[in-house]
Design goal:
Helices cover 40% and strands 14% of the residues. By secondary structure, the protein is α/β, with parallel strands linked by helices. Helix 1 runs antiparallel to helix 4.
Length: 210
């Protein structure tokens, strides 16, 4: 049985289910058809990539869409369309995170995300059991706060440096092959999660390293 001190989770596609189609349709309803060229389950482009890297704030997205549509678009409608990408975190996965922490594992999140979607998740899905996100994770490593995105190796190195984790004592779980490949190159044990996978049996085969 393998022993790990820390487990690092990706968010979208690993913990939270998503629907690219639902978000695209919501953007079309507000008149912004170009969203298909920007949004992707694994890596964004254009202003969305800038938002994920923390290079611009939400106002840049609002301005870009309003210019493209040719009229002012309510920022709340844009937020709702962007967050339409997200569905829900199944309760069993929230219970899983709590159980892993009780067992003695340290849990980190390493996610390419942005301030709009992360605010939505912190105030919504992560509160559905009456707790906050801090109940589920020891540390959050978020692309827009770090100015870095996966699959670049620098975001992994920055997480290692700022937390002191030992990659060989860490399990990294992501749904992107490119991200998993980088994690492996940085010395992590890795697991490639399938979309909507119930990977709880994975944790029956590991123990906390204390």
């Amino acid at each position: 049985m393998k022993k790990f001190r820390t487990i690092v989770f990706d968010l979208g596609g690993v913990l939270i289910d998503y629907s690219l189609e639902r978000s695209i349709e919501a953007f079309r309803r507000i008149g912004y058809g170009q969203i298909e060229t920007l949004i992707d389950p694994y890596r964004q482009s254009g202003v969305l990539l800038q938002l994920e890297k923390g290079e611009v704030g939400p106002e840049a997205l609002y301005d870009e869409i309003s210019r493209s549509v040719g009229r002012p678009v309510d920022p709340k409608a844009i937020d709702a369309a962007l967050c339409g990408f997200l569905l829900d975190i199944p309760d069993y996965k929230l219970d899983m995170l709590l159980d892993l922490r009780r067992r003695g594992f340290r849990l980190f999140m390493l996610s390419n995300t942005n301030t709009i979607m992360m605010t939505y998740m912190k105030n919504g899905v992560f509160r559905k059991q009456g707790l906050t996100i801090d109940a589920y994770f020891d540390r959050l490593f978020l692309s827009y706060e770090m100015g870095l995105v996966k699959p670049g190796a620098e975001i992994f190195r920055r997480m290692i440096e700022s937390s002191g984790i030992v990659p060989s004592q860490t399990l990294f779980i992501d749904d992107s092959q490119a991200n998993v490949d980088t994690g492996k190159a940085c010395g992590f044990d890795t697991y490639l999660a399938a979309r909507n996978e119930d990977f709880r049996p994975l944790f029956d085969r590991i123990e906390p390293l204390v």
